[in-house]
Amino acid sequence: MQRQAGLFAMELWVTEKQTPAVGITCKVIRTLLDEQTDYQHMAIVETEQFGRMLLLDGMVQTTEVDEFVYHEMIVHVAMNTHPNPKQVAVIGGGDGGTIREVLKHPSVERAVLMEIDRRVVEASRELLPSISCGLDDPRVEIRIGDGLEHIRNSENEYDVVLIDSTEPVGAAGAATGLFSPDFYRYVGRALREDGIMVAQTESPFYNQDLIRRTQAGIRATFPITRLYLASIPTYPSGLWSFTLGSKVHDPLAVDPASIKSLDTRYYTPQVHFAAFQLPRFVEELVRPAAAVEGGM
Known about the structure:
Elements lengths: L11 E8 L2 E15 L4 E7 L3 E6 L2 E5 L3 H15 L5 E6 L4 H6 L7 E6 L2 H10 L1 H4 L7 E5 L2 H6 L5 E7 L16 H10 E10 L7 H12 L4 E8 L7 E8 L22 H6 L5 H7 L2 H5 L3
Parallel strand pairs: 6-7, 6-9, 7-8, 9-10
Antiparallel strand pairs: 1-2, 2-3, 3-4, 4-5, 10-12, 11-12
Protein backbone atom coordinates (compact mmCIF):
# COMPACT_ATOMS: atom_id res chain seq x y z
CA MET A 1 0.00 0.00 0.00
CA GLN A 2 1.37 3.39 -0.97
CA ARG A 3 1.50 5.92 1.88
CA GLN A 4 1.02 9.63 1.15
CA ALA A 5 3.57 11.96 2.70
CA GLY A 6 2.22 14.13 5.51
CA LEU A 7 -0.69 11.84 6.45
CA PHE A 8 1.15 9.73 9.05
CA ALA A 9 1.37 10.87 12.67
CA MET A 10 2.80 8.71 15.44
CA GLU A 11 0.79 8.42 18.67
CA LEU A 12 2.15 7.39 22.06
CA TRP A 13 0.01 5.40 24.49
CA VAL A 14 0.73 4.07 27.97
CA THR A 15 -0.85 0.80 29.11
CA GLU A 16 -1.09 -0.65 32.59
CA LYS A 17 -1.84 -4.37 32.66
CA GLN A 18 -4.15 -4.41 35.67
CA THR A 19 -4.50 -8.18 35.47
CA PRO A 20 -2.95 -10.65 33.01
CA ALA A 21 -6.13 -10.25 30.93
CA VAL A 22 -7.18 -6.61 31.50
CA GLY A 23 -5.43 -3.30 30.93
CA ILE A 24 -6.09 0.43 30.84
CA THR A 25 -4.61 2.50 28.01
CA CYS A 26 -4.23 6.27 27.88
CA LYS A 27 -3.02 8.53 25.08
CA VAL A 28 0.17 10.34 26.08
CA ILE A 29 0.88 13.93 25.09
CA ARG A 30 4.47 13.87 26.38
CA THR A 31 6.76 12.01 28.76
CA LEU A 32 7.99 14.18 31.62
CA LEU A 33 10.10 11.64 33.52
CA ASP A 34 11.27 8.08 32.92
CA GLU A 35 13.84 6.60 35.30
CA GLN A 36 14.86 3.62 37.37
CA THR A 37 15.15 4.55 41.05
CA ASP A 38 16.86 2.47 43.70
CA TYR A 39 13.53 0.72 44.31
CA GLN A 40 11.36 0.79 41.20
CA HIS A 41 10.77 2.14 37.72
CA MET A 42 9.11 5.56 37.87
CA ALA A 43 7.45 7.49 35.07
CA ILE A 44 5.40 10.66 34.95
CA VAL A 45 3.54 11.25 31.71
CA GLU A 46 1.05 13.86 30.60
CA THR A 47 -2.08 12.16 29.27
CA GLU A 48 -4.90 13.58 27.21
CA GLN A 49 -7.68 12.19 29.44
CA PHE A 50 -6.29 12.30 32.98
CA GLY A 51 -3.61 14.99 32.95
CA ARG A 52 -0.30 14.14 34.53
CA MET A 53 0.00 10.53 35.64
CA LEU A 54 2.49 8.89 38.01
CA LEU A 55 3.36 5.25 37.33
CA LEU A 56 5.53 2.97 39.47
CA ASP A 57 6.66 -0.31 37.94
CA GLY A 58 4.08 0.30 35.21
CA MET A 59 1.16 0.71 37.64
CA VAL A 60 -0.88 3.91 37.82
CA GLN A 61 -0.45 5.50 41.24
CA THR A 62 -2.22 8.80 40.75
CA THR A 63 -3.41 11.25 38.12
CA GLU A 64 -4.22 14.95 38.26
CA VAL A 65 -7.84 14.38 37.20
CA ASP A 66 -9.06 11.66 39.59
CA GLU A 67 -6.55 11.75 42.47
CA PHE A 68 -8.93 13.71 44.68
CA VAL A 69 -11.21 10.68 45.09
CA TYR A 70 -8.51 8.43 46.49
CA HIS A 71 -6.83 11.01 48.67
CA GLU A 72 -10.04 12.38 50.16
CA MET A 73 -11.42 8.93 50.93
CA ILE A 74 -8.29 7.47 52.51
CA VAL A 75 -8.07 10.50 54.81
CA HIS A 76 -11.38 12.09 55.77
CA VAL A 77 -13.34 9.03 56.90
CA ALA A 78 -10.83 8.34 59.67
CA MET A 79 -10.08 11.98 60.44
CA ASN A 80 -13.76 12.76 60.92
CA THR A 81 -14.31 9.60 62.97
CA HIS A 82 -11.57 10.46 65.46
CA PRO A 83 -12.74 13.30 67.74
CA ASN A 84 -9.39 15.11 67.91
CA PRO A 85 -6.66 13.80 65.58
CA LYS A 86 -3.42 15.61 66.38
CA GLN A 87 -0.66 13.18 65.46
CA VAL A 88 -1.00 11.47 62.06
CA ALA A 89 1.29 9.07 60.20
CA VAL A 90 1.12 8.37 56.46
CA ILE A 91 2.97 5.27 55.24
CA GLY A 92 3.76 5.55 51.56
CA GLY A 93 2.08 8.32 49.65
CA GLY A 94 5.25 10.05 48.50
CA ASP A 95 3.26 12.06 45.95
CA GLY A 96 1.91 14.08 48.90
CA GLY A 97 -1.82 13.89 48.17
CA THR A 98 -2.71 12.14 51.41
CA ILE A 99 -0.68 14.66 53.42
CA ARG A 100 -2.46 17.51 51.61
CA GLU A 101 -5.84 16.20 52.76
CA VAL A 102 -4.66 15.48 56.33
CA LEU A 103 -3.62 19.12 56.69
CA LYS A 104 -7.17 20.30 55.98
CA HIS A 105 -7.98 19.30 59.57
CA PRO A 106 -7.08 22.16 61.94
CA SER A 107 -6.54 19.80 64.88
CA VAL A 108 -3.44 18.29 63.22
CA GLU A 109 -0.23 19.28 64.98
CA ARG A 110 2.13 16.84 63.24
CA ALA A 111 1.87 14.77 60.08
CA VAL A 112 4.67 12.26 59.46
CA LEU A 113 5.17 11.02 55.90
CA MET A 114 7.13 7.76 55.63
CA GLU A 115 8.21 7.08 52.04
CA ILE A 116 10.86 4.51 51.13
CA ASP A 117 11.76 6.08 47.76
CA ARG A 118 13.16 9.61 47.97
CA ARG A 119 12.81 10.11 44.22
CA VAL A 120 9.02 9.77 44.36
CA VAL A 121 8.88 12.75 46.74
CA GLU A 122 11.36 14.78 44.69
CA ALA A 123 9.66 14.10 41.35
CA SER A 124 6.19 14.80 42.75
CA ARG A 125 7.34 18.13 44.16
CA GLU A 126 8.70 19.09 40.75
CA LEU A 127 6.09 17.68 38.38
CA LEU A 128 2.88 17.17 40.44
CA PRO A 129 2.61 20.45 42.39
CA SER A 130 -1.18 20.35 42.79
CA ILE A 131 -0.82 17.01 44.62
CA SER A 132 2.41 17.60 46.55
CA CYS A 133 1.57 21.15 47.65
CA GLY A 134 1.29 20.26 51.35
CA LEU A 135 4.75 18.78 51.76
CA ASP A 136 6.38 22.07 52.77
CA ASP A 137 3.86 22.78 55.52
CA PRO A 138 5.71 23.22 58.85
CA ARG A 139 3.54 20.52 60.44
CA VAL A 140 4.90 17.91 58.02
CA GLU A 141 7.86 15.68 58.84
CA ILE A 142 9.20 13.65 55.92
CA ARG A 143 11.08 10.47 56.77
CA ILE A 144 12.75 8.62 53.91
CA GLY A 145 12.96 4.97 54.83
CA ASP A 146 11.01 1.84 55.63
CA GLY A 147 7.62 2.78 57.09
CA LEU A 148 7.15 -0.71 58.47
CA GLU A 149 10.34 -0.38 60.49
CA HIS A 150 9.26 2.99 61.90
CA ILE A 151 5.85 1.69 62.93
CA ARG A 152 7.42 -1.41 64.49
CA ASN A 153 9.46 0.87 66.74
CA SER A 154 6.62 3.25 67.65
CA GLU A 155 4.30 2.94 70.63
CA ASN A 156 1.29 5.01 71.69
CA GLU A 157 2.39 7.79 69.34
CA TYR A 158 -0.31 8.42 66.73
CA ASP A 159 -4.02 9.18 66.67
CA VAL A 160 -4.42 8.12 63.04
CA VAL A 161 -2.24 5.95 60.77
CA LEU A 162 -2.98 5.94 57.03
CA ILE A 163 -1.43 3.18 54.93
CA ASP A 164 -1.13 4.70 51.46
CA SER A 165 0.87 1.82 50.03
CA THR A 166 1.48 0.62 46.51
CA GLU A 167 0.16 -2.78 45.46
CA PRO A 168 1.98 -5.72 47.11
CA VAL A 169 3.55 -6.75 43.81
CA GLY A 170 6.28 -5.55 41.48
CA ALA A 171 10.03 -5.71 41.36
CA ALA A 172 10.61 -3.86 44.60
CA GLY A 173 8.06 -5.76 46.65
CA ALA A 174 8.45 -3.04 49.26
CA ALA A 175 4.73 -2.92 50.09
CA THR A 176 4.24 -6.63 50.73
CA GLY A 177 4.84 -6.35 54.48
CA LEU A 178 2.22 -3.59 54.74
CA PHE A 179 -0.55 -6.15 54.15
CA SER A 180 0.46 -8.63 56.86
CA PRO A 181 -1.23 -9.39 60.21
CA ASP A 182 2.04 -8.62 62.02
CA PHE A 183 2.08 -5.15 60.51
CA TYR A 184 -1.46 -4.42 61.68
CA ARG A 185 -0.41 -5.45 65.19
CA TYR A 186 2.48 -2.99 65.01
CA VAL A 187 0.05 -0.29 63.84
CA GLY A 188 -2.23 -1.06 66.78
CA ARG A 189 0.68 -0.61 69.17
CA ALA A 190 1.80 2.63 67.47
CA LEU A 191 -1.69 4.08 67.89
CA ARG A 192 -2.98 5.69 71.03
CA GLU A 193 -5.76 4.03 73.02
CA ASP A 194 -8.51 5.46 70.78
CA GLY A 195 -6.52 5.38 67.55
CA ILE A 196 -7.73 4.62 64.02
CA MET A 197 -6.01 3.21 60.95
CA VAL A 198 -7.06 3.08 57.31
CA ALA A 199 -5.41 0.98 54.60
CA GLN A 200 -6.10 0.97 50.91
CA THR A 201 -7.13 -2.62 50.19
CA GLU A 202 -7.39 -2.88 46.42
CA SER A 203 -10.22 -3.89 44.08
CA PRO A 204 -13.12 -6.11 45.23
CA PHE A 205 -13.33 -7.42 41.66
CA TYR A 206 -9.66 -8.32 41.15
CA ASN A 207 -8.21 -8.72 44.65
CA GLN A 208 -10.76 -10.73 46.59
CA ASP A 209 -8.24 -12.99 48.33
CA LEU A 210 -6.24 -9.97 49.48
CA ILE A 211 -9.38 -8.33 50.89
CA ARG A 212 -10.27 -11.49 52.82
CA ARG A 213 -6.74 -11.69 54.24
CA THR A 214 -6.53 -8.04 55.22
CA GLN A 215 -9.97 -8.19 56.82
CA ALA A 216 -8.86 -11.09 58.99
CA GLY A 217 -5.55 -9.45 59.82
CA ILE A 218 -7.05 -6.08 60.78
CA ARG A 219 -9.95 -7.69 62.67
CA ALA A 220 -7.45 -9.61 64.82
CA THR A 221 -6.13 -6.31 66.21
CA PHE A 222 -9.01 -3.84 65.92
CA PRO A 223 -12.43 -4.51 67.48
CA ILE A 224 -14.08 -2.24 64.90
CA THR A 225 -13.14 -3.21 61.34
CA ARG A 226 -15.10 -1.79 58.41
CA LEU A 227 -14.54 -1.81 54.65
CA TYR A 228 -15.77 1.04 52.47
CA LEU A 229 -15.71 1.83 48.76
CA ALA A 230 -15.01 4.63 46.29
CA SER A 231 -15.05 4.94 42.51
CA ILE A 232 -11.63 5.76 41.01
CA PRO A 233 -11.54 5.57 37.19
CA THR A 234 -7.82 4.81 36.71
CA TYR A 235 -7.55 2.14 39.42
CA PRO A 236 -8.14 -1.52 38.53
CA SER A 237 -11.85 -2.14 37.83
CA GLY A 238 -12.70 1.46 38.84
CA LEU A 239 -14.08 0.24 42.18
CA TRP A 240 -11.65 0.57 45.09
CA SER A 241 -11.75 -0.49 48.71
CA PHE A 242 -10.38 0.90 51.95
CA THR A 243 -10.42 -0.83 55.32
CA LEU A 244 -10.71 1.06 58.59
CA GLY A 245 -9.59 -0.43 61.88
CA SER A 246 -10.52 1.37 65.09
CA LYS A 247 -9.91 0.72 68.75
CA VAL A 248 -12.92 2.71 69.98
CA HIS A 249 -14.63 4.99 67.47
CA ASP A 250 -17.10 3.61 64.90
CA PRO A 251 -17.30 5.59 61.64
CA LEU A 252 -21.01 4.71 61.40
CA ALA A 253 -21.69 6.20 64.85
CA VAL A 254 -20.33 9.63 63.97
CA ASP A 255 -22.75 12.52 64.45
CA PRO A 256 -23.27 13.97 60.94
CA ALA A 257 -23.38 17.45 62.44
CA SER A 258 -19.84 16.98 63.76
CA ILE A 259 -18.34 16.29 60.33
CA LYS A 260 -16.22 19.29 59.42
CA SER A 261 -16.91 21.40 56.37
CA LEU A 262 -13.87 20.87 54.16
CA ASP A 263 -12.71 21.84 50.70
CA THR A 264 -13.47 18.48 49.06
CA ARG A 265 -14.80 17.32 45.70
CA TYR A 266 -15.82 13.72 46.48
CA TYR A 267 -16.09 13.29 50.23
CA THR A 268 -19.19 14.71 51.93
CA PRO A 269 -21.03 13.87 55.16
CA GLN A 270 -23.47 11.84 53.06
CA VAL A 271 -20.65 9.96 51.29
CA HIS A 272 -19.05 9.25 54.68
CA PHE A 273 -21.94 6.93 55.54
CA ALA A 274 -22.92 5.81 52.04
CA ALA A 275 -19.42 4.43 51.33
CA PHE A 276 -20.05 1.69 53.92
CA GLN A 277 -23.21 0.45 52.15
CA LEU A 278 -21.70 -2.53 50.39
CA PRO A 279 -22.95 -4.52 47.41
CA ARG A 280 -23.78 -8.09 48.38
CA PHE A 281 -20.71 -9.61 46.72
CA VAL A 282 -18.47 -7.26 48.74
CA GLU A 283 -20.39 -8.01 51.95
CA GLU A 284 -19.58 -11.67 51.39
CA LEU A 285 -15.86 -10.85 51.16
CA VAL A 286 -15.79 -9.18 54.56
CA ARG A 287 -17.79 -11.70 56.57
CA PRO A 288 -15.74 -13.42 59.26
CA ALA A 289 -14.73 -16.95 58.24
CA ALA A 290 -16.85 -18.49 61.01
CA ALA A 291 -19.96 -16.76 59.68
CA VAL A 292 -19.29 -18.03 56.17
CA GLU A 293 -18.69 -21.59 57.40
CA GLY A 294 -21.90 -21.42 59.45
CA GLY A 295 -23.92 -20.38 56.41
CA MET A 296 -24.81 -16.96 57.74
